[in-house]
Amino acid sequence: MLFKEIIGQQEVKGKLLSLVREDRTPHAMMLFGPEGTGKLALAVAMTQYLACNDRQEDDACGVCPSCIKFGKLVHPDLHFVVPVLKTGSMTAPPVSDDYAVEWREALLTDLYLTESQWYESLGAENKQGIINVKESENIIRKLAFKPYESDYRMVVIWLPEKMNQPAANKLLKLIEEPPEKTLILMVSEHTNKILPTILSRTQLFHVPPISGADLREGLMKLGQADQQQIEDAVLRANGNMSTALQTLRQDDVERQHFELFTELMRLSYARDIVQINGWVERVAGMGRERQKQVIDYSLRLLRENFILNMENDSLNYMSAKESEFSRKFSPFIHEGNVHALAETFTLAGNHIEANGNARIILMDLSIRVIRLLMQKATAAN
Ligand SMILES: [Zn+2]
Asked: 158 partner at 20 to 30 Å CA-CA among 23, 169, 193, 380?
């Protein structure tokens, strides 16, 4: 992981780089601050810089044998301690090494990995991980060996606030009497939950929220969203890259739903059975969960259009794109058909959930929509 892959944070980067360049790397340090700022990536970039065989002025070289191993997070002198939890049929208390493969994959996929995303990737959402005493014993054992390939043995402890008391006590002893040429690099979001005695023996570096300008530039480089979406994401993110990325992903899914819904309405109005058949095929191939989401989205937009038609603008919750479409579409959703339409979509959703044949359910839904859209506003009930 290279410093240049991490968005913004020039000040922190400068401090970390000079520690290594001036050979002042402390044996225990902590990067702390809110979620989504790149703390964890900065910590890993620092260890890579420390071990690089051909250090540049402001980053590791990225191509030496050491950097190649760091790029895959498999360097033998780099260790990770992260909160974990029992999954599957596990009986013994788990340690980070049990999830080494999953951890590497999760972090390499997303430098801004959050705690909840980590648990989710283990298939254990809504659960809390911990760092237990066995983990601290493992660190002590690992640091007792000589470094294999670099000058340092390095442990990155992600979220040390997740240590239970016995684990924290063992870590404290290690920090009090550190073996030579070791770097214990902690990455914390809640320093108030860490033993004060650990904090007082640790060099602290605050990692602030990413600035709006840096966030904007970083999102633009990804090239997956337009200007307006990026501005929305920056506004909502509050300096948190994770939130920004999630906002963009969410936007993407909503946009697909919007397109599917408007397409179905257009084709139904035109009574274009051939094209409708194509639509049905596409949605039927998307998987049950997504089909349910399309139905739920459709129900929401139908409701919004009915409200818009009733000219009660104050109740409207639509994006710019949805509003634009709805100005033309809302006259077709009225008291004469709104209940039947809602019922039709709800029923389709229930049938999909009950594992019915998606093709038949969606085709049936489309035929009913054609008929209901033809009903005149005056023909109420
Ligand atoms: Zn290198």
From this structure: 23
Question: Between 2.60.120, 1.10.600, 1.20.272, 1.10.238, what CATH number should domain 252-374 receive?
Answer: 1.20.272
C-alpha 17 to ligand 1 mean position (Å): 14
pLDDT in tens, 205-254: 999 999 999 999 999 998 878 888 898 889 889 999 999 998 888 888 88
DSSP state of 26: -
Measure 49 CA to ligand 1 centroid, in angstroms: 7
* Tokens describing residue 184: 């214990």
56 C-alpha to ligand 1 centroid (Å): 8
47 Cα–ligand 1 center, Å: 11
Cα(103) to centroid(ligand 1), Å: 22
In this structure, are residues 365 and 344 in contact, taking their beta carbons and an 8 Å threshold? yes
Q: Which of 94, 159, 104, 102 is CA-nearest to residue 133?
A: 94
- What is the phi/psi pair of residue 311, to 5°? 60, 40
CATH topology of domain 3-208: Rossmann fold (3.40.50)
pTM of the model: 0.75
Bridge pairing between strands 182-188 and 78-81: unpaired
Could you tell me the residue ranges of all domains in the chain? 3-208, 252-374
Distance of CA 268 to the CA centre of its chain: 37
pLDDT tens-digit profile of 153-163? 999 999 999 99
User: 122: CA distance to ligand 1 center in Å?
Assistant: 31
